[in-house]
Design brief:
It contains two helices and 41 strands. It is mostly beta strands.
Length: about 500
């Protein structure tokens, strides 16, 4: 235990700076201290403790016991003794309310100003003695289910697809790699000096295989121009086409919804270069409905055949007056004859509110798939995901795709949320039984997250690409590590890790 302050010496409370507590990015000593009161970190215990789980088995007739496996590290408990004071009873209570609110969350970063390291901790107990005055000494007890301490983030620099990493921590640690793709690839692999490797996709055997473009893009729009788009025709959406569409430079949105007795609003369409049977439609939409629960509205994208008949639809909408509740829809067929792959608010009510993310629907032969995911706009990582697939065993929904319609809608005269379509892609899905498909193209980003054992392309989780039985989310060993990246000259690569300590 490190002791920094005499708790009975009130003259030192306001000026102590040698030890302060940071939790989830907030400095508790600063956030909770002002001219009328303060929070002061007094002592911290548990940072240097080490507990191991030792698995044993008793053998009759044998002295002592047998240890039958290597020990593992047990959880860590960190206790912070603090002093909280205020000039008034009301201020004292408010200061405790603020303290408790700052301690929310699970496995948040816990750090101290005397050490450049963090723990991942969850508050277990705020232990407060009997409150007889406006000055108390209490204990914050944190549970670290991950018992290790982590140093500052370290960069991994590759030169000619090779990197040397020296891990100065006391235990192995997990790296994270980000690969910016420079040209089409069928695989990506990182290998260490022990032969352990992480790989997605497959290399091409030039004797009997050819790489091919499985997803051939026929249409792309980033919502910055209406050029090439025209007003949709009656019957091509479920509702009345009124008002007008505009672009703000980043998305398609309504400049005017017009008027109607039910669903109505602008709708624009464009055509593909050729009709396609096997297709993938992806969109990036925003639907910000939580600011005013009275707002209702919808964003929809329809796929049509050459005659304007609906083939499929994807949508995000809110139809509840007085409650913010976004719904996602992915539909095969038209309004009268259809099958909904998704027609819900996700796996938990309200988790698609203020939706900013990807919506996708695709078909190969009679196999349909749909995908919804919010996107963290800082990291690009997909979350709050929903995936569905369905086989049209009767072959009912087999129209080809030749056109696409973008629609934003208003119901009667209800106010609408901020909503629009930021980007739209339509791909022709090619099939080639004797070839190896490209898994990523120029500009795509591949992430190997060895800490959480996940792989992403452009923020989307892509576990299905881990097809090789030998792949492993390896760790960086203590000491020197050698890494090699394949294929050569196909990536700009960056990586990072944090050294771990017992």
């Amino acid at each position: 235990m490190y002791k920094f302050v005499n708790p009975t010496d009130t003259n030192t409370i306001q000026n102590v700076t040698s030890l302060q507590t940071l939790f989830n990015g907030n400095n508790l000593d600063k956030e909770l201290s002002d001219d009328t009161g303060s929070f002061v970190t007094l002592t911290v215990s548990g940072r240097s403790n080490l507990n191991q789980r030792i698995n044993t088995i008793d053998v009759p007739g044998l002295d002592g016991t047998n240890e039958y496996s290597n020990p593992t590290f047990d959880i860590r408990e960190i206790t912070i003794k603090y002093k909280l004071i205020d000039q008034t009873k009301e201020g004292f209570r408010q200061r405790y309310n603020r303290l408790n609110s700052l301690l929310d969350g699970s496995k948040k970063e816990l750090a101290f100003t005397d050490e450049d390291a963090v723990f991942y901790a969850t508050l277990q107990t705020n232990e407060v003695p009997e409150e007889e005055t406006n000055s108390v000494i209490g204990n914050l007890i944190f549970l670290c289910s991950d018992p290790f301490k982590y140093g500052p983030e370290q960069q991994i620099n590759f030169t000619d697809n090779v990197a040397t990493v020296v891990n100065d921590g006391t235990v192995d640690t997990s790296p994270i790699f980000q690969l910016e793709v420079l040209s089409p690839i069928t695989f990506a692999m990182i290998q260490n000096q022990n032969g352990d490797y992480m790989m997605i996709g497959k290399p091409v055997n030039i004797e009997d295989q050819e790489p091919f473009e499985k997803y051939e893009r026929l249409l792309y729009s980033d919502g910055d121009t209406l050029s090439g788009w025209s007003i949709a025709s009656p019957g091509e959406i479920n509702g009345n086409i009124t008002g007008s569409m505009e672009t703000d430079g980043t998305r398609f949105q309504a400049s005017d919804y017009g008027k109607g007795s039910s669903w109505h609003g602008p709708a624009i369409k464009t055509s593909l270069s050729e009709p396609i049977s096997d297709f993938r439609l992806t969109t990036f939409v925003s639907f910000l409905n939580e600011r005013n629960p009275s707002n209702v509205g919808r964003v929809e994208v329809y796929l049509l055949d050459v005659n304007g008949n609906q083939v499929a639809k994807i949508a995000m909408k809110d139809t509840m007056v007085g409650q913010a509740l976004s719904w996602g829809e992915a539909r095969a067929g038209d309004n009268d004859n259809n099958y909904f792959l998704i027609s819900e608010y996700g796996d938990k009510m309200g988790n698609w509110n203020d939706f900013v993310g990807h919506i996708r629907i695709e078909r190969v032969a009679n196999h349909w798939k749909a995908y919804f995911a919010k996107v963290d706009t800082t990291t690009g990582r997909h979350h709050t995901r929903r995936f569905a697939n369905w086989v049209d065993s009767q072959g009912v929904f087999d129209r080809t795709v030749a056109q696409v319609v973008v629609h934003v809608g208003e119901y009667k005269n209800h106010l609408t949320p901020s909503m629009g379509v930021h980007s739209l892609n339509i791909f022709k899905i090619n099939q080639q039984t004797d070839g190896i498909p490209y898994i990523a193209d120029q500009g795509d980003t591949i992430t190997f997250n060895h800490e959480f054992e996940e792989v992403y392309i452009n923020g989307e989780y892509r576990e299905e690409l881990l097809t090789d039985l030998g792949v492993e989310f390896f760790k960086l060993s203590k000491g020197k590590n050698q890494l090699i990246l394949l294929p050569h000259n196909k990536f700009n690569v960056s990586g990072y890790y944090r050294e771990r300590y017992k």
